[in-house]
Write a structure and sequence with these properties.
Shape: elongated
Helix content: 25-40%
Strand content: under 5%
Radius of gyration: 18 Å
Order of helices and strands: HH
Largest sheet: none
Length: about 45
């Protein structure tokens, strides 16, 4: 079924949490730039 309404704008976020698509791991880049330096390293504790 084809609609006569204009197409809606949609957004898409692609992440690479395990580093398989990019050289730099997304989580590490986000943590370095967004978390305070004294934040515990929960990811290392989890592993």
């Amino acid at each position: 079924m084809i609609s006569s309404k204009p197409a809606e704008h949609h957004s898409l976020l692609v992440t690479d949490f395990d580093g398989t698509m990019t050289r730099h791991d997304f989580y590490m880049l986000a943590a370095r730039s967004l978390l305070p330096p004294d934040m515990p390293d929960y990811w290392a504790q989890y592993r």
